[in-house]
Fold:
Amino acid sequence: MNPSAADTWDEFMEGVWRQNPTFVMILGMCPTLAVTVSVVNALSMGISTMLVLIASCGLVSMMRNITPKEVRIAVYIVIIATFVTVVDYAIQAISLALYDALGAFIQLIVVNCIILGRAEAHAAKNPPLPAMINAAGMGIGFTIGLLALGVVREILGAGTLFGVALFGAGFQPWVIMVLPPGGFFVLGAWLLFFSWLERRKLRRQQAKLVEATQNA
Amino acid sequence: MHESAFQIFVNALLANNFVLAMFLGLCPFLGVSGKLDTAFPMGVATTFVMLVASLCAYGLNLLLGYFHLEFLRLISYIVIIASSVQLVEMVLKKYSPTLFRALGIYLPLITTNCAVLGVALFQTAREYDFVQSVTFSVGGGAGFTLALVLMASVRERLTLSNVPDLAQGTALSLMLAGILSLSFMGFAGLGG
Structure:
């Protein structure tokens, strides 16, 4: 891999893993918790957010040299709102059932901190192509976060995955998981899991270090 | 179905609490709820912005409907909210500089508080009239303040107790929020 390709890959993976918006930066919590009652909802929310994110980061980046510093936030917000309106109408045209399920949360993509954060922190300082690649990575990271919650909540709360029943008729759904408290609990559990992983990695590194010094 | 103003208020305050049942405004909820001293003013400031935004959104919606420009709704709502946050910021800066400094970065962030845009969007979607819109926004704001204050009080107590290292920080706050949300489910059906 040549250096520039490696850079691009790095740029992309930043959002997917190291700076994952859901689990590392804890951004965009409202849609994360509100729409993840089923995998289909989570996936469509993730994709719509990603589309808005890529398009608005691209445009913000193209306009970065002609945007006056004082009013930049207002400019970003208007750009984002424009793309959200487009996505909103598109979803309404594609699937009305989905539109009803996601409700106001499609329009609330405007106030998703991830998008404004990316526009301000990355797109405003970089040329369009890297900005859009970074945005795509962030969008995928966000979608992964949504899916992680959606899968757990749908399996536990309804006993289904993508609407297909997983268990026999004797399954008693754990209804609380699809209700609001379940969202908080499942996200909390995922965060605990990740911090446990992190902790374990750290401990192993330290153990290795101790061993190395003892051997020496 | 015509909801009375009282029903709307109780629903927005308790049964459909903005934070704990509808997941609106979680960022400040998790961010500012560390201390009671800042949680309450933050709630009041947000409520005020909500009220202003709701009033403007109501007028604007009539105007947009008159000119058949509904597709501009989202963009104009967000511009209105941004300006009312600016207004609150200027008022606070003039009359209470201490509070202004205490709220810090979270004050301009009210603009990206989904609860504020949520009020405007929901009142439009549910076709509330003027009185209903006002009670809805005040109820929602009071609900937001209530959730924030409850959370802050619990977290203040929690700093004194012994928590496993692993659960420190956001994971713990989320679990707490989950328990609060569970207890708020007990209010379901209260507003009729």
